[in-house]
Amino acid sequence: MPFPAFADVLALEATIFDNGEDKKFRHKLTLKAYTGPRIKSWKRPDWTATATLWPYDVAVKTAKRSKAKFTDATLALIEEMAAGGSGYIGVFMHTGGGSAYNDLHVVWVDLTDNRAMVYTPNCQCWLAPFETTDAKNKPLKGNAMLHSRSSSAMALDHWATGDATPL
Question: What is the tens place of the pLDDT at every residue in 84-143?
């Protein structure tokens, strides 16, 4: 299932996780999108996916060796992002069954400046700034290290960490 169009997203939530130094790929990003005129359930976003984040200098090699067999277009996008010479790159994979990698659903993350760019066929944007607290201003739990929240609804301004910005 493709990511919804930017104009259809009511709220966008991203969390970066640190799985520890002994893991082959230390960081992951989970992205949740809520669409429609209101949030029906915070526990059931309309779109959810996770990306393992590869350091830019091994991202292309890792993607080419992946069992997922990414399309040439997805590989070209990974190469383009890696050519920037910094950050981490990942391809979104849906939770649930089947071969769930999403063609052309790629994220670039800069952990130094706490920023991320999402690229999908329907949405290309910078995520809202990341924080180290949750929506209730409490420290993140478990291995969550950064959290980004944005919304197009004024009623959720208190919840958001800023605005997602289309490219």
Answer: 999 999 999 865 544 567 889 999 999 999 999 999 999 999 999 999 999 999 999 999
Question: Residue with structure tokens 């706490």?
Answer: 114
Of the candidates 125, 130, 132, the residue with the CA atom closest to the CA atom of residue 152: 125
HSE (side-chain half, CA atoms, 13 Å) at 55: 7
Q: How far apart are CA 91 and CA 5, in angstroms?
A: 18
pLDDT digit string, tens, across residues 54-79: 999 999 999 999 888 899 999 999 99
CA distance 33 to 46: 6
Q: What angle do CA 13, 131, 115 make, to 5 degrees?
A: 75
What separation in angstroms does the CA of 119 have from each of 47, 98, 126, 155?
15, 22, 9, 27
What pTM was computed for the model?
0.92
Helix (H) or strand (E) holding 60: helix 56-65
DSSP letter at 159 equals T
